[in-house]
Amino acid sequence: MAKGLPKSFKKALWVYHCNSGSCNGCDIEIVAALCPRYDVERFGIKLVGTPRHADVMLITGPVTRQLKEKVKRVYDQMPDPKAVICVGNCGNTGDVFYESYNLVGPVDNVIPVDVYVVGCPPRPEAIIDAVAKAWVKLETLEAKK
Amino acid sequence: MSTKATTKTTYQLPIGPIHPALKEPVMFEFEMDGERIIEADVKLGHVHRAIEWTGMRRNSIQIIYLAERICGICSFVHPFAFCRAVESACDIEVPERAHYLRTIHGELERICSHMLWAGVAAHEIGFDSVLFLTWEMREKVLDLTEYLTGNRVTKGIMTLGGIRRDITPDQIPKIKETLNYLKDNFEKLRHVYLDDKTFKMRSQGVGILTKEDALKLCAVGPTTRASGIKKDVRVDQPYAAYGDIDMKHMTPDLLTGEVNGDVYDRIIVRLLEVKQSIEIMEEALDKMPSGDIVSEPKIPKLLAHIKKTVGEGVGRDEAPRGEVIHYVKFDGENENPYTWKVRASTYNNILAWIPMLKGEQIADIPIVAASTDPCMSCTNRVTIIDKNKKYILDKEQLHRLSVQKTRRLMR
Amino acid sequence: MSKENLDPKGLVKYFKDEFKTKIKKAEITVKPSGSNKREMTHIWMKIDKSIFKPFIKHLCEYQFPHMAVVSGNDYPKEIELVYHFSLDFGKERKEISLNVAVDVPKSKPEIETICDYIPGALITEREKQEMLGVKIIGIPDSRRLFLPDDFPEGVYPWRKNEKGMEKLIRNLHEVKK
To answer: How large is the ipTM?
Structure first.
């Protein structure tokens, strides 16, 4: 585990989920992380309905042309400090959709990404691990100020 | 200046593209009068990834893996329908054991999908604990899927001419254990969804789709069976092992004796189908013959055979949401198909949203849209423009409206 | 439903009696479809464009069909549209699939709509309009369905040798040095 991580999370992370054209496989695994088997709510991590309350954005899917502006708008509406986690192979490098006329690049062409989660779809444990890594990154950013 | 009261004008309500209870980001535009919906309009296209265009540039084995990722929840039926189309066009035969194995995996996926839907529907009404109860039961079924195929969601076991993994005799006890667990808990699920007073108040008489509308708009799946029309590809044109298994169309009058076409009927149809799937799986496990699981294991030979074929084929099967159809055409010169056309089941059900939503209140939008089971809840902001005022309702508030209505009814 | 339920041969005869020579091809294929050598029956027909609308009317008078989808094949001089219907659903194990192909010349790519008989065909007709460039006459709603609004006009992705898309195709995994 990362050095300097205290015994409990100091600040509970609120998470916003955005689907930019994915097949919904990754989206189901994100919601499965909230369920009693993996139970991410015991850490205080909560799925919120608006980006204005969120600290971390989970984005899935290769970005389609129609949704490019909307993803940027959602990113701008999140207050600082924020982190972006790209869940699933589609957003990382395109996976099976590596060549298409309606897709605008992997997610880091559109917004800056902090953590990449690999898998198609990634297991809920991998998603929780990614949120923990984003937490460590946010804490280090705040400590630097 | 006239002193007569001016008539209330209607206002436009755009919802989307990322939105409560939807398979893909879809944009709605409602014309509202107060809280009632007068007109509804649907705009699609936000998840267009150019799959058919890409498919015409790859060979048939690569298309199987592309077809799996069309939808994460129906990730077994799309490769299944594609393989049926190619096998029909190129005359590739499928061994008997493979038919039974395909049936078992298809029904397992149907159980997972219906339980996912049940949880989402409960969440839209406002009962979060029912969401957790249903998804906890679903985790056991996903454990079984992982035990048999290696992954929880995109399984990758379909191939042309058969299936890639076999069920060995030492795996059968675990399958029977999971099915017994589901049978024991089915009564609990039925009691929560069908006997609860609040569920009935929120879902009876809401989102009605009449029989004539369902027939004219060519709706498919549980949406149309709940309106009384009997359409089910497994019963009408049996494929795989369904011909050997005795089954009938599941309509709501099997349980309650009458057909209304509202949200309550759709819940009944889906719960009955879960029970039917458990029975089908048990019967298929008992009747499965022994033998090969794939007719041509060497892929280059298969691709060479496909390269020489001239012909076209259609493959249809029954996804948890309705009928899925794939059309494929080969021209005898390339390995890639000349044309590949996919029609997923939700596209026929989208036109059915419009008659269902007219006359409903805003707070009922999530449950009516979710009752046709369009895959997943995503979220977005809702902008209401009311004369000169403009205020933003986000998903939390829309969901809160839906929950508040439940609390009002409970008093 | 005014007539008895015909079997595939009777159905082909029902159409041939009405339209005679305008039906260019009518073939019944029986393919294996499951365990125990079960079979499925498909009827493949090819008709002339001039009798397209009367054909659909004749079909709806026999029985209201279930319209699955319209698929399209792009050939050098014409576009072939294939309409997939299915009849006799609801009775166990007796469903018949009917696939009707119509040729539309590329010099004048137009065809009439069937939305006045079968309202559920709206979405698939809109898709053909934007993907293949076939103009559907009389369609109630002719907006774009899947392609974004700023996609260039006159570019049809499903046509082979389509030239206008070179700038739009992207390779997502390439790394720019």
So the answer is: 0.91
